Fold each of these.
Amino acid sequence: MFEDNYRQRGLRQKLVKILRQKGITDEKVLAVMGKVPRHVFFDDALLNHAYEDKAFPIGEGQTISQPYTVAFQTEKLSVRPKDKVLEIGTGSGYQACILMELGATLYTIEYNRVLFEKTRDFLPLMGYKPFFIYGDGSKGLPAKAPFDRIIVTAAAPIVPEALTNQLAEGGILIIPVGNLERQRMIRITKVKGELIKEDFDYFSFVPLKGEKGWG
Ligand code: SAM
């Protein structure tokens, strides 16, 4: 239903090389970045940009994240096969495919109805079948908690307590936190009930909306 030709596979391997140069070292993450097609998420007019290391518009004022950002968050999340993972901000579904290629059982929430419906209909055609949820992910997904891993792919003003509460023992949350211009990538690990916080680089995401986001 979509083409993945020699040229596109070649461009993907070049992208993997760029990710390596930028500091991504996890071979499993690099392998799945080299496997999942990104061009299928692009409109025809933007197709030539699919394997540039840049974020791009996906409609509704939202973006498909930059490949480096996807690889960085995924690397820091250390997903293990069969981990129960919550993704907040389904968007195009590209990050969801990466997580599922690593073996995650994925629950993915989207706040924008148009994107939710588009991705819910498209991803299964690619062979990826996460649990799709329409709603406000800033409150997590208490009905399905706890989660081994939680990833937030939009800029949060704070770390919502609901999310750390929904982490399993040994669980990891990765979330960009800051203002609307830039955010620091934060990783929180739950160890014997304690929350261990680590700070990484700055990134720039679209805002997390909803009750515990920017409203
Ligand atoms: N992971 C996406 C991908 O691979 O394309 C990138 C997502 S984009 C940078 C951020 C997404 O978060 C947008 O689709 C936006 O509508 C969604 N979003 C914003 N606030 C949200 C919320 N409270 N709950 C769920 N999704 C939200």
Amino acid sequence: MPMQSKVCVKEEPLAARYMGPEEILRLKERYLVPCVYHFYKKPMQLVRGDMQYLYDHTGKRYLDFFAGVSVANLGHCNPEVTERVVEQFRTLQHTTSIYLTQSVVELARRLAEITPGRLQKTFFCASGSEANEGAALLTQLFTRRKGFLAFSYGLHGHTKLTLDLTGLEFWKVDPFPCADVGYIPSPYCYRCPRGAVYPSCNLECVGEAEVLIKKDPERYAAFIAEPIHGNGGIIVPPKEYFPRLKELLEAHNILFIADEVQTGFCRTGKMFAIEHWGVEPDVMTVAKALTNGFPGAAVIAREEVANVLTRPYASTWGSNPVMATAAMATLDVLATSRLEYWATELGSYLKGELLLLKEKFPIMGDVRGMGLMIGVELVKGDKSPATVQLDFILEYLKDRGILAGRTGPGRNVLTFQPPLVITRDDVQEMLEMLEEALESAQKGV
Ligand code: PMP
């Protein structure tokens, strides 16, 4: 028998194990397509996650208020989800939809149970963009129409079609759009393009959508919308908005796709954000928090709509058992943890505190959002976007161990979408740092 060598593990400083930000930046510039942009003038290298915390290569702890953009709703490396995923990884990592797997049908049944209205049949795939592609295809097949309606400040993905469905200028990189899309104005009350004021406006923006539809009512297969704009700057439509719009769509046999990629899985205080408006989508797309941090997405449709897609259409990762296990574990934790109540309670506390800060800091033009999806629009005295100040605040918070996000058509919305497991003390800690950051920003950046 060969002698076993004694392995001597030498203690080394944590940072020595990692490349570090400078080297990553150098390699990134050399080997990644430049579209892969990052936050911060001095970015950190993240190496570990533990619930609401992330750690960089020096061991520094960050309180995460962005959740990898609304992904880790149950916290980073949530132990319950991780255990089951690891077990599944050890047992069976991949088959594909040409073979039968139990977890996939169980997950589909579960999604039918928890999604609103008559949503029933699911197609699984790997990303939110892919799910929106599938949803778009279903609605075209069902209605035999080609066009789509989408919000002027919506975002739906990075593939060719979903780039076209995306209205936000910041993300529109495609020089040759191929889809037929009519954009309707986002219900952005803080900057209403008509200068109208809610509620006396009587939702003129729905009237504008009606004018567009009536120009060519047979043109549109579906309207795709995020119930609350994510990248568009946490725009929350007024309570009558979606019911009024849905009525209009039904009058013209246009289907409604709810893109819940950012808003799903208790983020806004309900399992799905569209439930706040009591409107039934014909198709819904989910991704991100579905698996709490593992590639996976789904299109869920009403049975009649789903049943039109009978010819083979497949995604290699669509029946992945690890994806299905991650999603089932996520849904199990959500079912027992009452995180939707926590998101409502803590979200209203955070929003309330931000509104108090707004009294003190004129740079905080607007505070909006639902549950733990909250945006603060930063403005200068003339209401133009305070983007330089936002840069400063993001960096200031990061240096003091707080990660927040940036969204909005003017890229001036400071955004909070933390893991739903954060505590009141975490919120307090963030607010104290934010107040300091705002004071410094106000003194002049
Ligand atoms: N829809 C929405 C609302 C999104 O926020 C995103 C991603 N930010 C997508 C779709 C695309 O998802 P993915 O990146 O998984 O393709």
